[in-house]
Amino acid sequence: MSHRTVMTPESGVDATEDQMARPPRPVLALDIGGTKLAVAVVTEDGSTHAFAVEPTRRDEGPDVILRRLFDMGHRAIDAAGLGPVAAVGISCGGPLDARAGVLVAPLHLPGWIDIPIVAQTAAEFGVPAALENDASAAALGEYRYGIAQGAETALYLTISTGIGGGAVLGGTLHRGAAGNGGEYGHIMVRPGGRLCLCGRHGCLEGYASGTSIAQRAREAVAESDAATTLTGIAPLAAEDVARAAAAGDALASAVWTETTDLLAQALTDLVNVFEPDIVVIGGGVSRSGEQLLGPVREAVLRDAMPPAARAVRIEAAGLGDEVGVIGAAAVAFDLVKEKADV
Ligand SMILES: [Zn+2]
After folding, report:
1. What is residue 144's three-state secondary structure?
2. How far is the CA of 150 from the centre of ligand 1 (A)?
3. What is the whole-number distance in angstroms between the Cα of residue 60 and the centre of ligand 1?
4. pLDDT in tens, 28-81
5. What is the pTM of this model?
6. Rounded CA gap, 6 and 298, in Å?
7. How many CA atoms lie within 13 A of 102 on its CB side?
8. What's the gap in Å between 247 CA and the centre of ligand 1?
């Protein structure tokens, strides 16, 4: 967990100096997850203030949840004590239409159909608002404030329940036509393989997401006669597989190795296509650290085209639990800049 606070700029500065030295107004960041809502006021240096998290309680439906989210936002603005915000950034899972500012039908929020969230947020707070796919926002957050600072081309993968991604190319967030680009989870790694939620067979997500790692391990336990420490763990999670593999359990190691092999296979393609300076891996599964990154790095270095393989760093995400709000804030600051440039 990161601790990001800065001094407030108000005190002890006379009016003239204040006008000259006044930093840009902060923004409000809203992160809408399937299990958690997070808000923070964020200043231009990426420092978060009044960071707050609440359970989403999905069964309450969009009206009640958005009212609660907006109330959290107002409380954060009051608690931060930095004055009015310049804009609001919203990070949410897709499918969404970032340009239209509409949540089309987010997979993690059943029943949220065609919610005009940008218009609602702008009306609520009286300032411009912007929406971004959560993985794209996280990519921008890591690029501007996290481990990808200074990179020219940065890719971001989040590996948790599913697999999402985003790309910053030449310093600019790649959005795609509607803001849903970067679906690295649906790169095919096993033609004809496991059925993916998207309807195809053999996507990376069907093997290397936290959900799929656990599912493959459960199937392996059911099919194998060999002794394994995974027997009897219920519900079996990806972190149990990682822990058992690290302790030398043969069945867990086989599942884990297949995971890192297939992740490396997809990353090798991405590295060949984009020749990035850095690939950042975030999400819950990335907490296994070097156990995940080590073999992936080795395979990409071996298999990618040599110039691309030599150029790329593969690193764990740097922003931790605040990546959602920091990414949303980066999107909001881009909006403020865009408006100022017009
Ligand atoms: Zn798929």
Report:
1. helix
2. 32
3. 29
4. 999 999 889 999 999 999 999 999 999 999 999 999 999 999 999 999 999 999
5. 0.88
6. 39
7. 9
8. 31
